[in-house]
């Protein structure tokens, strides 16, 4: 039996991840997770409300890291540069914990119930990031759009890192933000096009 | 009793939306929705699998409109310009149906269960849009990022339209895409910053 609460928690997470990969999320019970972790089922529920949350334990750390990084980014940085700083810090948390975070992202990507939970968490984190940008003085309207756009690039980079682990997450992140600049730089002005009647499908 | 299936369907959607606004989504039963629509509960389940789906009936139309608009956008347009065309067309569907789509978006925004469903639908639509861009010859890597970024701007514009209905959704959409250009234009190159050690938090 694991001796400390933190150790039991870590073993439950590892056991859940293994079982979800071996048998699939839907086929795995909390009793099986507890058994593999060497604890009883009551201990599982002392740590996690359900078998989805066992894979989302790191959200509080990620949120704290993002908020801190946005608040502490150098003065005068543009919103997306602030977010690149913040996502680099968040990315290092994922990268430092790669033996867990990589299979975790793979399991989530192929399990609709986990994907739904992840999307809800991401939406909540995106709103928190937007608030943190507003607290730095980024105008209301731009803060929300910047947060959603930056999150799209972060999510895209994390997915690319899963598919191509030969590059670091940081490298994928830099590339995603550069791709975003390239994509946007080649856009036509939207309001001007709308006024002249151009660009309508 | 409504005479045709299509009429029953429309009445069920209207009744559901009214009840969700009056009493909240969680407090409303399918029996109550059926009663207000003047049909029995079996008819509800002939049209919808559950009380969440009753608000997502337009997804197939939206998907078809987006796919068609991406495929038909003029040759030579840049990826985000193609998406602006496509989201303008999708926006017109929302705008033409404003008496339903505006309160619908409000109810979704404040109901976590509906928000989760909407996020899952949006993720699926974003993947479809990325595929449609790839079919136009947009490189693999850029297609996914462009779809996610474009969707972020579309979502942002729809939210802004709910909050400020004095401007059209099309005007909000044009502004969101212009804001995206502005945000990206002021970014520093990410890979160069990473290589020189700059930009790290």
UniProtKB/TrEMBL annotation, chains A, B:
<dbReference type="InterPro" id="IPR041347">
    <property type="entry name" value="MftR_C"/>
</dbReference>
<dbReference type="Pfam" id="PF00440">
    <property type="entry name" value="TetR_N"/>
</dbReference>
<feature type="DNA-binding region" description="H-T-H motif">
    <location>
        <begin position="29"/>
        <end position="48"/>
    </location>
</feature>
<keyword id="KW-0238">DNA-binding</keyword>
<dbReference type="InterPro" id="IPR001647">
    <property type="entry name" value="HTH_TetR"/>
</dbReference>
<dbReference type="InterPro" id="IPR023772">
    <property type="entry name" value="DNA-bd_HTH_TetR-type_CS"/>
</dbReference>
<keyword id="KW-0805">Transcription regulation</keyword>
<keyword id="KW-0804">Transcription</keyword>
<dbReference type="GO" id="GO:0003700">
    <property type="term" value="F:DNA-binding transcription factor activity"/>
</dbReference>
<dbReference type="GO" id="GO:0000976">
    <property type="term" value="F:transcription cis-regulatory region binding"/>
</dbReference>
<dbReference type="Pfam" id="PF17754">
    <property type="entry name" value="TetR_C_14"/>
</dbReference>
<feature type="domain" description="HTH tetR-type">
    <location>
        <begin position="6"/>
        <end position="66"/>
    </location>
</feature>
<dbReference type="InterPro" id="IPR009057">
    <property type="entry name" value="Homeodomain-like_sf"/>
</dbReference>
<protein>
    <submittedName>
        <fullName>TetR family transcriptional regulator</fullName>
    </submittedName>
</protein>
<dbReference type="InterPro" id="IPR050109">
    <property type="entry name" value="HTH-type_TetR-like_transc_reg"/>
</dbReference>
